[in-house]
């Protein structure tokens, strides 16, 4: 596999993975403007973010079996078309409730890219390189919180928030074209796989009962839920509480995201000397300490805007080590069921994330826009994840990866 083709493949898989985060981050600076334009509260608009998380979570369970049954491309193309239609619907909506519904539909479309990208990584690369590939994909995905809020802030300030969704529609159209021309097919469709409810449930259960899967998938989901708590609460905290402008919020968001990008690439270097299991344990432990410090200084009122930014930056640096390793360790035992495993992992992670997002929205109303709900949930998530990991690692058994599970493409 030549280097040019390899780079194109990483970019396509990365943009498929990044479409959903981009859809989340790009409209965050416009929350205040959307609420004013639609005649509602910011807390009500925050529910459009929660509905998006719910749509991603449930949609992945749908696409997993479809990707295994019909191959990777057909379900992916259908999902991208749904996303394009829903994005246009968001752009022309006149009510908050319709925006919430369209965001749900938009998420149901975008999650096809997330599931397909993870399944194709398992299809196309050696087992030993999966964590490194996920780190490269995270590099592309992490550009989203650096670029999207900044771009979204300027677009909403100059042209109005409706244009944010028009831009998202255009981006999805380019990704669709790239997938048609350059994306490999991955594994062949499994025509024997049943799409009836009972066999699908049995298939998902066969994936979930693997100790290595559920321990690392749920651990990664709980840890990443803190990131979704930050996504849900950051606009209200920085714009509403610290009174920064939409443009300033974009730059703050970009700076914090730089930590996620940098740490994900340091993770690739560390994997040359350490195992994923070792890296994720240390990263979770450090994230626990930072999360507790963040909540304590917020509760006591000892933190200003700069301190908040720096602590969140450090907190999300840890996430750059946790997410790629948790994903790789979750998917390693699977080959034929890669689509279902990817979908179930995404369902668990986004489901937990949607709960964290909803809790931030609800508690923010009760605490009048305080940063305590966001920082409190950010502190609790890594504590729960660490407890699960150290308990679950005792029951994980060594699993044999059959030769038939080998990759289609090897890294040079």
Automatic annotation (TrEMBL):
GO terms for biological process: xenobiotic detoxification by transmembrane export across the plasma membrane. Pfam families: MFS_1. Residues 6-394 form the Major facilitator superfamily (MFS) profile domain. The chain crosses the membrane at residues 45-64, 76-94, 100-121, 133-155, 161-183, 213-231, 251-270, 282-303, 309-331, 343-366, 372-390. InterPro entries: Efflux_drug-R_Bcr/CmlA, MFS, MFS_dom, MFS_trans_sf. GO terms for cellular component: plasma membrane. Keywords: Cell membrane, Membrane, Transmembrane, Transmembrane helix, Transport. It is a multi-pass membrane protein. One of its GO terms (molecular function) is xenobiotic transmembrane transporter activity. It comes from the Bacteria. It is found in: Cell membrane. PROSITE patterns: MFS. PANTHER family: MAJOR FACILITATOR SUPERFAMILY (PTHR23502), POLYAMINE TRANSPORTER 2-RELATED (PTHR23502:SF132). Belongs to the major facilitator superfamily. Bcr/CmlA family. This is DHA1 family bicyclomycin/chloramphenicol resistance-like MFS transporter. It comes from Mucilaginibacter gracilis.
